[in-house]
Amino acid sequence: MNQQIQMVDLKGQYQRIKPEIDSAMIACVESAEFINGKAVSIFSENLAKYVGVKHVIPCANGTDALQIALMALDLQPGDEVIVPAFTYVATAEVIALLHLVPVMVDVMPDDFSINLEQVKNAITPKTKAIVPVHLFGQCAGMEELLSIAREHNIYVVEDTAQAIGAKYIFKDGSIHQAGTMGHIGTTSFFPSKNLGCYGDGGAIFTNNDALATRLKMMANHGQSKKYQHDVIGVNSRLDTLQAVILDVKLQHLDEYCSARNAVADYYDAHLKDIPGISIPKRVPNSTHVFHQYTMKIADGKRDALKTFLQEKGIPSMIYYPIPLHYQKAYQTPRFPKGIFPVAENLCEIVLSLPIHTEMTEEVQQYIVSAVREFMAS
């Protein structure tokens, strides 16, 4: 293969929209509005329209978004927050930082979403919130989860870092975007995300006016107005320069989602019949924006396949190699090894192939050919 294959081609994506990006960045620098510039509000309004939510509160990164969301709910030390055991550490990290208790549950073996039966069983009088993760680009089972939350008077904070633009279809036919269904939604604009900036960034979504006011204060030192601090907050801002970049890329987000789906369709068509490979399941009540294309590799061949692909110049990633309850920082007798067999097994068998907006069919053919070659050996 003559060209270098990447998990995500940010340079190629930039080159395609270079005139738009460069013009927006130059205008931002010339305005000298580097912090809380008008462009931040404009982007927030445009993103709110795109996802269909009343309020978008930008912040410094996706982890901050999760932390500020939980801070705004006024939870108390010792309160419990339910999270999936198969996710990135940030989901549980912010819970522990606020002296709350992360209560882990297993995930589903086919679509990797939070196991709703285990959610029901994990609820105690101390349970105050659930954080479903819309993993790899499609929504968790929100209709049932929201019903569970209403029954027990529990907050729902959606972790939408990997699924911005994904749509969930309720039984009544109504459609809502990821991050807009719970009390609060959070997302990340890390450069490799489907909507990524050229540094760090994040945002918080809510339809609740009172929560929006509180979230805005908490992201800005707890200020209701300048030098008046009503609550304890943090300093978490989206730079104006990142806002103008994101506003340009937002106009291309549907196009990006379509491009990722085209790559996923190609992979599906050419990998689905290979023994030992399980392609990603697409659930019927959610669209998929394919932040990652994550397969399951049987018979203990995952690591050998990863090595083989690397030798062929094909990168791949393991999301995630260690379940949360195995991590040293989160180990507790409450969640011993073996308690979440699905999450533990997934960490041994999942492998994500390159998927991004700039992939050519030649590259896709080369990747599929290499996977077939290995699995046939």
Would you mind describing this structure in some detail?
The protein has 377 residues and is of the alpha/beta class. It has 2 domains: 235 residues, Aspartate Aminotransferase, domain 2, CATH 3.40.640.10; 124 residues, Aspartate Aminotransferase, domain 1 (Alpha-Beta Complex). It is 39% helix and 15% strand. The protein is built from 13 helices and 14 strands. The strands form 4 sheets. It has a 7-stranded mixed β-sheet, sandwiched between helices. β10 and β11 form a beta hairpin. The longest helix has 19 residues. The chain starts with 9 loop residues before the first helix and ends with a helix. The model has no long low-confidence stretch (mean pLDDT 97).
Per DSSP, the total helix count is 13
Unreliable runs, pLDDT <50, ≥5 residues?
none
N/C terminus separation? 21 Å
Which strand order spans the largest sheet, edge to edge or round the barrel?
Answer: 1-9-8-5-4-2-3
Radius of gyration using CA atoms only: 21 Å
Helix content: 25-40%
Query: Structural class, please?
Result: alpha/beta
The CATH architecture designation of the largest domain is: 3-Layer(aba) Sandwich
Number of domains: 2
Element pattern in H and E: HHHEHEHEHEHEEEEEHEEHHEEHHEH
* Shape, principal axes of CA atoms: globular
Largest pleated sheet? 7 strands, mixed
| Annotated CATH homologous superfamily of the largest domain | Type I PLP-dependent aspartate aminotransferase-like (Major domain)
Q: How many strands?
A: 14
Give the CATH level 1 class of the largest domain.
Alpha Beta
CATH topology of the largest domain: Aspartate Aminotransferase, domain 2
Beta-strand residue fraction: 5-15%
User: Overall pLDDT, averaged?
Assistant: 97
